[in-house]
């Protein structure tokens, strides 16, 4: 793998996540009917009409319009985007925080739907479906074979809430066929991945995005940790590309003292809106740490900025993405929508953390590569800041605007960039697929293991490591992993734990050796 190939992969995936995650006003609305009197608007309409009526060949004018809308938005800023009709359902479900289905995580494994695990307390679990089961059909619709598409599987398993879907299931571990009826229910798409008390007494909450349910999930998690008498709180916003603005503000209500400013927004007409913390928060005192990295954007940066500017806690990690624009979702009437930048936001000290985008979308999206080349991911003194954009926190500490939140405690990525490539690989779906395959060879054996026996077995089994390398080669992926074998095995153990013992034990294993967690202690 070439030296600079991995930053490009990270940069592209980060940009896509942040463009879609964004920083949204949660209230979508339809624009009022407008009479187009402007000649340029009429020109566009006439052009499409002429193409439909007069052009010599058949043309998909919908495709032309979609490209036109996207091109127009690209001229505005990097975060005003078009969402096509066929993408809206998935985007809406992600931000609404739920969908209606049976509640299983699955792979399409060797031409059949294989259950990895059930959603806890979900309809599938209650109906008796267990990890390793193959779902062969749903209401008579065949779900195995090479011709089955992902859409076919989704359409068969999802449906109206409280409707019954009759499944034919093959249970491999018992070599038996079953018929199981499952009542479809609303399945939460969690934005809070995990909350737990760590061994040192600190509470830990990991948030992956800001959906319409994030504040509710966060408050419940926080109250649970407070009952466990935590000695401090860590909020992990690493790789969180953002989402709804109101959810971040509500979260800050729980953390920041009453009447302290948490964010300001200014729209096109110069109207300033100031949001301040309310009085009913449950954790307005006590140690607070916020973990961030170069993938933390938008609403994540509002949390970090408010905590830092109000001297409420400590920001730990690396400089954040640098997104200080607010989008509103506007429906276009045909099932598609745009997210249009309608305001800029400012941290309590008055700083805009939006990084420049005047050099074009490509340069903007490849900022990660620039940071990598400058060395700022490895050393705090390489962070590029504008001395002219100095601001002060409530206690008078100097902070900077113009491009992300610079942490109070800097934690570098691994000095050998190969470690980071390996970590990216080990967090990919390939690893979970491989581990499922290994467990599926003898599920009864693995189900009988305690966590300690599983860890010992996995760490000492040399065949697992060699089989993993063979598995990568079969997928035309060739990594030099032997120098990083310990790192690879650490993540393989984590995924075995994840699939057999759940997310809390998975995070507990990985966090025990996490550099940012170590920096907090």
TrEMBL record:
Database matches in Gene3D superfamilies: 2-enoyl-CoA Hydratase, Chain A, domain 1, 2.30.42.10, 3.30.750.44
Family according to the record: Belongs to the peptidase S41A family.
Name listed for the protein in its UniProt record: Carboxyl-terminal processing protease
GO MF term list: endopeptidase activity; serine-type peptidase activity
PDZ domain mapped to chain residues: 88-164
UniProt KW Repeat keyword: no
Gene Ontology terms: biological process: proteolysis; signal transduction
Cellular component GO terms, alphabetical: outer membrane-bounded periplasmic space
Keywords noted in UniProt: Hydrolase, Protease, Serine protease
